[in-house]
Task: inverse folding
């Protein structure tokens, strides 16, 4: 794989980047691309996809040199201030990536998370809340609450809950409703704080495509613009889900989208149509999107049992 190809695939979030790093004896040539991925949020639609931190960490970990990656991420994280939604998702990327490093023992990553937590808690205690604007400080703080609770378990959860109770007394503008995602962790704790993606389900391509769907597929093949392909890709997924007997290579094209959610939909449909090979499924085990990883693991396990 060339460096240019690796850089393209890491932006897409494909599992083949992990496979390349874990098997190549020339992985140093990819180090700069992995560092760029640490410092930039490559999620196409972060609100839908969430963070790609676990994926990026899996690539950085192949070098056995966490300090090389942690130091610049900590620097970017501590400087980060959020003015809008784009800034917020950059913050989430850094936060979750440092969480992944801290979970594997990085003291510098854990220290940065704790220092940012203390800083934002102090800001919230004296902040004048503007109800007509998104409160990015509160949203950042809640993400840190979740990360630290997931990192250190129930004891950390209880400590953060105590900090929040104190915050409500110091600044009555804030209530439990402002941090409901954090409190929801308590209910999710017994199940590992998250669900599982389902294995493959049959999809019957039972009807002839409409003229509009055929026209859409031709436009999709001819379009190079990434945003246009993303919109068309969602429509193609919808057509397949409603039984349109379109060429299955369209799903393969959607698979190479930068959007992890669209790729997940394509993977499920490829599996249901019998088009997802074991080799492709094994690549998906290392995908950037958590649901795709979980789906592929379940799928390969279910195929073993048959």
Result:
């Amino acid at each position: 794989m060339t460096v240019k190809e690796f850089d393209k695939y890491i932006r897409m979030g494909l599992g083949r980047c992990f496979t390349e790093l874990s098997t190549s004896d020339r992985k140093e040539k990819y180090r700069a691309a992995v560092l760029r991925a640490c410092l930039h949020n490559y999620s196409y639609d972060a609100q839908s996809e969430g963070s790609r931190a676990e994926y990026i960490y899996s690539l950085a970990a192949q070098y056995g040199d966490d300090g090389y990656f942690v130091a610049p991420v900590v620097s970017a994280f501590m400087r980060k201030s959020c003015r809008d939604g784009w800034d917020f998702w950059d913050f989430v990327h850094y936060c979750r990536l440092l969480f992944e490093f801290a979970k594997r023992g990085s003291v510098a990553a854990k220290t940065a998370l704790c220092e940012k937590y203390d800083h934002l808690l102090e800001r919230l205690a004296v902040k004048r809340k503007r109800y007509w604007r998104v409160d990015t400080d509160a949203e950042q703080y809640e993400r840190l609450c979740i990360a630290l609770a997931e990192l250190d378990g129930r004891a950390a959860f209880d400590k953060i809950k105590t900090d929040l109770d104190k915050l409500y007394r110091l600044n009555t503008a804030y209530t439990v409703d402002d941090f409901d995602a954090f409190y929801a962790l308590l209910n999710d704790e017994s199940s590992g704080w998250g669900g599982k993606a389902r294995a493959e389900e049959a999809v019957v391509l039972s009807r002839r495509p409409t003229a509009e769907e055929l026209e859409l597929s031709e436009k999709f093949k001819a379009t190079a613009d990434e945003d246009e392909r993303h919109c068309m890709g969602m429509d193609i997924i919808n057509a397949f889900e409603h039984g349109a007997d379109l060429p299955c290579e369209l799903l393969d094209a959607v698979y190479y989208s930068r959007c992890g959610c669209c790729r997940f939909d394509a993977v499920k449909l490829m599996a249901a149509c019998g088009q997802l090979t074991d080799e492709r499924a094994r690549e998906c085990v290392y995908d950037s999107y958590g649901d795709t990883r979980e789906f592929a693991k379940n799928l390969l396990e279910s195929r073993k049992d048959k």
Notes: The two ends are 34 Å apart (CA to CA). The chain has 18 helices and no strands.
